[in-house]
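Exercise 4. Each item below gives a protein and its sequence. For each, produce the structure-token representation.

Item: Cysteine hydrolase (Marinomonas transparens).
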Amino acid sequence: MSESCVLLIIDMQQGMSWPQAGERNNTNAEHEIAELLAHWRANHAPIVHVRHLSTEPDSLFWPEQEGALFQEAFQPLASEKVIEKSVPDAFTYSNLEAWLREQAIQRLLVVGVSTNNSVESTVRSAGNLGFNVYVVASACFAFAKQDFGGRERSAEEVHSMSLANLHGEYATVISQDEAFALLPE
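Answer:
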């Protein structure tokens, strides 16, 4: 297998930055993702952009709406792979697994939103499919959410619990500096 590591950027769409999306954590996540994107591009490493296109007409991510568009800082280049999805998991109903295997890519660096939804779902699948997965804790974010018992949970609590769900079983949760070290110079 190749030593290459793909940067997988999940759902960095305009709607994620709107107030309607909710109270979030990691307000510096976009900056960290942009730094990783610049590093991967400078090193001509593989990049995959994932975009959620909802099947619900009232969603911020309904196709052809501004909320579904990529944020300006995360516009894919023509040479970069784009995966469109209508469910949280980027592997379901897409050619992502086949493309990664065709490229002989075994390592994935996952960033984006939301930690407890599309990031967690995609990372779980990637881990179950045998990929070596890394998640940058500070380059993902979540939104405040009520737990099953009805207790309000902060965005940081939701984020931290999701990372705990992933670390060690499906992925390795790492820092930004550790992420840069994954890409050989």
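Check: The beta strands are 5-10, 47-52, 81-85, 107-113, 132-141, 145-146, 152-153, 172-174.
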